[in-house]
């Protein structure tokens, strides 16, 4: 039995969970999420918890057991608390600002990079070098943060670029002069 899959998902008050025709819908104060559940697992929903069980002992069923439980837990956490990813911008003249529904990044190119903020995601910019991506869908928050980071990834010599706040960049020594 999967150590992760056998744990029940606690359903807090104010969250409504429905499971109809292999589609799980979770509705809470932050929003509503839905996901198609694989047919090799079964969900048992009670008033305060949700349990995921697998139908057989196939390798694919065993793999889907823990994955499904984690995805359901992320849905419940997202509609109650939400998720946040922090990014840092390093470099002379590198900055970010939010203009309406767009994130405008100055990253050393000859033009500003304009990123349209997707629905369900909010972006806050502090001190023009700290960007926080917030939302209730964990996949969307991670994908948005990765897309912003891809505009100018951190380089190993001076550390210029966009990096995650908890990311460590391994620095390289530059070329040395001959004597």
- Rounded mean pLDDT score: 90
| Helix content range | 10-25%
What is the first-to-last residue Cα distance? 64 Å
β-strand percent reads 35-45%
CATH 4th-level superfamily of the largest domain: Ribosomal protein L6
Could you give a quick summary of the protein structure above?
Helix content is 20%, strand content 37%.
Q: Care to describe what's here?
A:
There is one protein chain. It contains 2 helices and 13 strands. It is of the alpha+beta class and 179 residues long. The protein has 2 domains: 9-80, Ribosomal protein L6 (Outer Surface Protein A, domain 3, Alpha-Beta Complex), CATH 3.90.930.12; 83-164, Alpha-Beta Complex (Outer Surface Protein A, domain 3), CATH 3.90.930. The strands form 4 sheets. The protein has a 4-stranded antiparallel β-sheet with strand order 11-12-7-13, covered by helices on one side. Strands 1-6-5 form a 3-stranded antiparallel β-sheet. The N and C termini lie far apart (64 Å).
Distinctive features:
179 residues; alpha+beta; 20% helix; single chain; four-stranded antiparallel β-sheet; 37% strand; 2 domains; Outer Surface Protein A, domain 3; three-stranded antiparallel β-sheet
Tell me the layout of helices and strands.
Layout: E1 9-10, E2 16-20, E3 23-27, E4 32-36, E5 41-45, E6 49-54, H1 59-80, E7 83-90, E8 95-99, E9 102-106, E10 113-116, E11 121-126, E12 130-135, H2 138-150, E13 161-164
Antiparallel strand pairs: 1-6, 2-3, 3-4, 5-6, 7-12, 7-13, 8-9, 9-10, 11-12
């Amino acid at each position: 039995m999967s150590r992760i899959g056998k744990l029940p998902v606690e359903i807090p008050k104010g969250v409504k969970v429905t499971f109809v025709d292999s589609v799980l819908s979770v509705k809470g104060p932050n929003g509503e999420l839905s996901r198609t559940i694989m047919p090799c697992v079964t969900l048992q929903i009670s008033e305060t918890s949700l349990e995921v069980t697998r139908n057989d002992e196939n390798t694919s069923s065993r793999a889907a057991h823990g994955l499904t439980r984690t995805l359901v837990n992320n849905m419940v956490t997202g509609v109650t608390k939400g998720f946040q990813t922090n990014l840092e911008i390093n470099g002379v003249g590198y900055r970010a600002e939010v203009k309406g529904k767009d994130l405008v990044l100055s990253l050393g190119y000859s033009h500003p990079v304009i990123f349209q903020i997707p629905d369900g995601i909010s972006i806050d910019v502090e001190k023009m070098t700290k960007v926080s991506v917030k939302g209730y869908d964990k996949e969307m928050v991670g994908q948005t943060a990765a897309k912003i980071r891809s505009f100018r990834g951190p380089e190993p010599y001076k550390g210029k670029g966009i990096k995650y706040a908890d990311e460590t960049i391994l620095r390289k020594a530059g070329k040395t002069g001959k004597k």
